[in-house]
Specification:
The chain has a single domain, classed as Arc Repressor Mutant, subunit A (Orthogonal Bundle), CATH 1.10.10. The protein is built from four helices and two strands; from the N terminus they run αααββα. Helix 1 crosses helix 3. The longest helix has 24 residues.
């Protein structure tokens, strides 16, 4: 699992798991972001977002996965700090 994909997911969700649809729509219009999220969805085998006409939001799976992604990234950061 690519940490950069997880960082992108977490950034889209900032500050919480129910970001405004406009924020998510803007983020997913960026081809790089869309590629990362699509790759993450493919790897997980679930959709993370419901994409609709201006009403993009997290799926139940996306909302459930978000805290796991945050904890994984925090673990990586703790590991980097301990290694240094």
């Amino acid at each position: 699992m690519d940490a950069e994909h997880l960082r992108t997911l977490v950034a889209i969700a900032q500050p919480d798991p129910a970001p405004p649809a406009a924020h998510v729509n803007r983020a997913l219009r960026d081809p790089r972001v869309l590629r990362q999220i699509t790759a993450l969805e493919r790897e997980l085998g679930v959709l993370l977002f419901i994409r609709g006409s201006g009403r993009t939001k997290f799926t139940q799976a996306g909302a459930a996965f978000l805290p796991v992604a945050r904890e994984f990234l925090a673990s990586i950061d703790r590991g980097k700090t301990q290694a240094r």
